[in-house]
Amino acid sequence: MELMKLLKTAIIMLLSLVFAKAIGQAPTQYKFSLQQTVDFATKNNVQVKNALLDVQIQQQTNKGITAGALPTISGNVGTTYYMDIPTQLVPAQFFGGQPGTFAPVQFGTKYTTNAGVQLQQLLFDGQVFVGLQARDASMKFRNKSVEITEEAIRVNVNKIYYQLVVAKTQVELLDANIVRLQKLQHDVTEMYKNGFAEKLDVDKLEVSLNNLQTDKLKVLNSIEIGYTALKTLIGMPIKDSLILTDKITDSEIKSFALIDSVNYEERKDFQYLQLAKKLGEYNIKRYQLSYLPTISFNAAYSKQAQRSKYTFFEKGDWYTTSYVGLNIAVPMFNGFSKDAKVKQSKLELQQTRNSIDNLKINIDAESEQAKLKFKSAISTIDVQKRNMELAEKVYNQTKKKFEAGTGSNTEITTAETELKTAQTNYITALYDAIIAKVDYLKAIGKL
Asked: Structurally, how many domains does the chain consist of?
């Protein structure tokens, strides 16, 4: 009986653990606007995380540079036991011996102990001096790299997010077409039953309806793939549920205003190269200052005791040694190594300047191309929206004629195909406009 109770208790505990684990692994549901999606990506995308770690690495590197300008203090304690006391040779005549000969003499004691502290302070080193000056620029350089990474993530999040939003609009249009065609199929089937339509008409409508269902399935599959890509990009577990709350309309897109000119300074990559140029200038200065002498200060204080027996913790004499010193190291010749490094760093700086000039050209091209694409897409949206409305109107009129017996099945099929084409063109124009807007905002540094 007692065994059954223990077994029952164990089963309950096991089930509780399994249930708790299942709850802990339950998928999380998120309802995100575009901005919330971007914010989530900024916190969880692995590229952003690594870029932030680079900032912390640079902070530690700067601390290492600062350490080179701070004093270093070290202490030492040591004991030596001479199993054989060192022997020195001294002229034998000191002890009344034969001139020109030497007598072995042992100096010292069996035990020697010393304790001391040393101080070293760098007073001037051109490379350390420049390194201290460049710390702030190095941190800004790393932080700007984070901003560039975040901007790249924002661009991709915007494009995928809006692609999914537009795809949902496409599904809504397909659903409307399916409902419309199902209604027509029902009406034609009734006409066929009453002898006013052919079986061929019913079959053609069924084929069209099946094609619409297939098109919808393809769009739904592409949406599912898009959600997986978006979750991967923002660092969200695939098992979690993501619902996009923002919607997009053509009127919202058309309300966006273009600007007349681009300010290069607002581009993150331009700011990044400007900082790279500044660091390049520091690099040249670092190698140029390496021609100057290095000056350092050092000091030491120590105590030493010598004993015939190990009695250092008892009374006895300790002898003091202390000194201060100044050292000046003057570089004289190093095989033209420094000259080569100065010239190399100047060439690398010129490469950075060339990259800045080329980036200006690319920024102008990107912004102009995106502007033209956006204007073209806006015009296309108006045309395709009007064309879609006309195609729907034609379809409805053709349907009425067909139901009245004055239209053919070919006409209704053609009208339905033209409506699908017009809807597809409208969706394409809508997405092209959104992408052009995102590219334009990125080009002018406003995303």
From this structure: 2
Tell me, yes or no, whether 116 and 129 share the same domain. Answer: no
Q: Is residue 3 part of a domain?
A: no
Pairing, β 111-124 against β 294-307: antiparallel
| Predicted local distance difference test score (pLDDT) of residue 14 | 56
DSSP 27: P
Q: Which residues contact 162 (CB under 8 A, 6 or more apart)?
A: 34, 248, 431, 434, 435, 438
Same domain? For 221 and 81 the reply is no
Backbone angles phi, psi at 215, to 5 degrees: -60, -40
- Inside any domain, residue 42: yes
Do 191 and 311 reside in the same domain of the chain?
no
Domain match, 160 and 306 both? no
pTM over cut 0.85 = no
Best CA proximity match to 256, nearest among 32, 440, 2, 443 = 440
Distance between CA atoms of residues 197 and 216, nearest Å:
28
Decide the pairing of beta strands 241-244 and 29-32. parallel
| Lookup: tokens for 434 | 């959104």
What pLDDT, on a 0 to 100 scale, did the predictor assign at position 403?
Answer: 74
Q: Which residues pair with 168 in a beta bridge?
A: none
So what's the pLDDT on residue 27? 81
Tens digits of residue pLDDT in 169-199: 889 888 988 988 888 888 888 888 888 778 8
21 inside domain: no
Please list, residue by residue across 387-409, b when 16 or more beta carbons sit within 10 angstroms of its beta carbon and e when fewer do. Answer: bbeebbebbeebbeebbeeebeb
Q: What is the pLDDT of residue 137?
A: 94
Amino acid at 10: A
Distances from the Cα of 364 to the Cα of 359, 421, 433, angstroms: 9, 35, 19
Nearest Cα neighbor of 73 from 301, 294, 240 is 301
**Domain extent at residue 403:** 28-70+125-292+335-443
CB 188 within 8 A of CB 147: no
Does some domain include residue 286?
Answer: yes
Check residue 230 and give its pLDDT: 94
Rounded mean pLDDT of 109-127?
92
Q: Are residues 239 and 163 in the same domain?
A: yes
